[in-house]
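PROTOCOL LOG
Step 1. Enter all chains and additional molecules of the complex.
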Amino acid sequence: MKAGLIAGGALAAVALGAAALSLAWTPFDPTAMSVAARLQPPGAVHWLGTDHLGRDILSMLMAGARTSLGVAVLAVAIGAGAGVPLGLAAAAMRGRWLDDAIMRGNDLIFAFPSLVIAILITAALGPSAANAMVAIGIFNIPVFARVTRAAALPLWTLDYVRAAQVAGKRAPRISAEHILPNIAGTLIVQATIQFSLGILAEAGLSYVGLGAQPPTPSWGRMLAEAQTMVTLAPHVAIVPGIVIVLTVLGLNLLGDGLRDALDPRLKARAA
Amino acid sequence: MTLAVSLLVASAVIFAVVDLVPGDPASFMLGTGARPDTLAALRAEMGLNLPWPVRYARWLGGVLTGDLGTSLAYRTPVAGMIVERLQVSLPLALAALALAAAVAFPAGLYAASRGGRAGDAAVMAGTQVGVAIPNFWFAMLLVLVFAVKLRWLPAGGFPGWDQPLAAIRSLALPAVALALPQAAILARVLRSALIETLGQDYVRSARAKGLTRAQALRRHALRNAMIPVLTILGMQFSFLLAGAIIIENVFYLPGLGRLIFQAITQRDLVVVQSSVLVMVAAVILVTFVVDLAYALVDPRLRGAR
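Step 2. Run joint prediction.
Step 3. Record the structure below.
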């Protein structure tokens, strides 16, 4: 499983590196069109070929990585930013009405078809990468709340937490000083998983035209534009798809590897 | 009781979100060149000038009596539209789920029986890739191979159930595209649940009686591993019913997802509200049924619930 961690880390690093590099350099201008150079297969000049407008696919993928990864990262931040405090509060107030209210609210959000609501939210706020991020982020909140609560609950019975209570520390301070550091590993693993799911969700929203808008490149939009070209020049659809698969695969392997490294007990029953 | 409360809260949330959607349905229907007085008349006729509590109460009252409202764009009852679209979405979701289970059960059982060895690693690697593939991209590849190159199946559209064979053929590729990631998830859950039960005493006793690992898995562990599998199956069914939106778009299928998607772009808000509510109700109901199924699978839970 060490191999998975290394391979996953490497794939994720390449994707993040490409996104970072695109801020300073891409082989071509990702938005520059050239009728003469359209639908070229991968070759010496355009390594991954060009699309139907003659844009360099490698450059678009690099710039698109910024959008796709950026949306997913910020969606995780929204989810963790709201979900972790809610989960901590629920665990601290275990069994009381606040816990109950938070968990019921969670169940309710889970009952909503996330994609439909994401589409509704982007329709309400207007289609853009930022609003796609909000829509995906909202559905990350109950995930983080649930995981945080489940991980934090057993800690409240431990001696050092009891000792802190006896010493007069209040629940919010105990949550921040004693609970949070001990569940950080679990949260990091969950964040990697939500990150990869966010990339898929962003691709889906952009694919139906509710994510990043032209001319901002995004992986999902590249696939949407490729759909009509797929019979003429399959590479236009195949290349961005493979990039998405490799990135998501890398993040999932990274998450699994981190979980095994942080908690070897979970290894046997890894799902 | 909780079921009713959940649905009530859900209806309020849906109404609030839909109410936030900008764009006036009346002006959308009449176009930009509409005369102000025509527009005002239509708005009044559609009840758009009423305050939101009245509109909410009217909608909710209708829903409770089985009237889901009338589509603003098509002037037909929403309930009829939903029923019509479900004739595509429901078979599609069920077919995808059956396909996913048909792949996931043998794969999960095999992986668990080979626990830690090469066969297990191969299945796990396969599921990792399966989870990472965006289903709409997979759908495009399926169209490229099976519709464009091999010409075995149609690339899109739906002929209706009066041509049963053609209808099944047109749902084949979408079902496969939807099933792939679900099969991967299901196989992983099944495998880990099975491996967990393998450590239990009753499985050890079965092994001691002389059963092979694979036999012990099939006869004793499988039933005990069904709880997490049922949970996931329930979630997947709900997901497939609603989450098929993108796949329905790829294949131009007139399903429930596409109805909602088109209604959102046309600002046909009554359709959006009611169909989303129907979906949420379906999800809540499925969760409820799954809870009941737990007791069926595991007699120990009968007293507990």
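Step 4. Note key features.
Residues 2-270 of chain A form a domain with the MetI-like fold fold (CATH 1.10.3720.10).
Chain A has one domain: 2-270.
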